[in-house]
Design brief:
Strand content: 25-35%
Helix content: 25-40%
Low-confidence stretches: 1-7
Mean pLDDT: 81
Largest sheet: 4 strands, mixed
Protein name: DUF58 domain-containing protein
Organism: Salinimonas marina
Order of helices and strands: EEHEEHEEH
Length: 118
């Protein structure tokens, strides 16, 4: 399995604090220096994960598909845009439940026979 995605904790910058921002993202150092509160922004916010790539020739195809499906569900829960690549088929970047279901349906359609040739 290959996921071309930045780490979910990649620091991107600071933005001015606004009501409702999570307190654990406040850059307390700026407050301690007497500046206005700022919130840390990480790459996952409004980010794009890249493509989940499916290897239909994986030695353990069932486990591989399970891992890709898990990543699709996790990215959906985090509202991160991602795409799916399977051989010649590509599902473009998107996010949301409909996109997740489309990706999972494509994964479910892969025949269970696969992996190492015997």
């Amino acid at each position: 399995m290959q996921c071309l995605c930045p780490g979910h904790d990649d620091f991107e910058g600071l933005k001015a604090y606004s009501s409702g921002d999570p307190l654990n993202r406040i850059a307390w150092q700026t407050v301690a220096k007497g500046r206005d509160p700022a919130v840390k922004i990480f790459s996952e916010q409004g980010g794009q994960a890249g493509y989940l790539k499916v290897n239909t020739h994986s030695a353990n195809l069932e486990q591989h598909l399970s891992q890709v499906a898990y990543q699709a569900v996790t990215l959906c829960q985090q509202n991160i845009s991602y795409g799916l690549q399977l051989d010649q088929q590509t599902i473009a970047h998107n996010s949301g439940l409909e996109h997740r279901n489309r990706c999972l349906a494509l994964l479910a359609g892969i025949p269970a026979t696969g992996g190492s040739s015997g």
